[in-house]
Prior knowledge:
Blueprint: H1 2-11, H2 14-66, H3 71-126, H4 132-155
Helix pairs in contact: 2-3
Amino acid sequence: MDSIMDRIAEKISAQDLIRANSQAETAEAARIKQEAEQYRRQLEEIRNNDKEYRQQLDEYMKQSKDYSGDFDAIADKLAQNDQKIHDIGVQTYRNVQAVVEKSGDKTMEELKEIERRIETVTAISDNKNGGLMPIVIITLIVSLADLVINVLRLLGII
Length: 158
């Protein structure tokens, strides 16, 4: 029975748990890196849109010299463009913030689970013979019962 407990302790070692956690953290870091790259592309798109909007504004400004009544329309268009840029920026910020919070919570849960497993492995290795005691007691009781039955048969009582 000791050899079985030793095998279990060997298979689920603290080093294996740490290695598994490290692999999980690496995978999570790769996922976060991929999401960060996606947000970087979105920010780049925002910057490109900003350049386009500014070019349009310059065109409007050139046209406005010829048509002074178009200033209100230009101001409205500029306000709409600024609002769009702001909305996209806020959305991207909130997405990044949510990913960071989610990954932090998930990492803490994984660390708690690994800590629990390490405690279990430690308890098993500290009490290798703890699981044998009930089996020994049951075997002793069965042996004593068999001995009593055999003695009673010899005496002719049964």
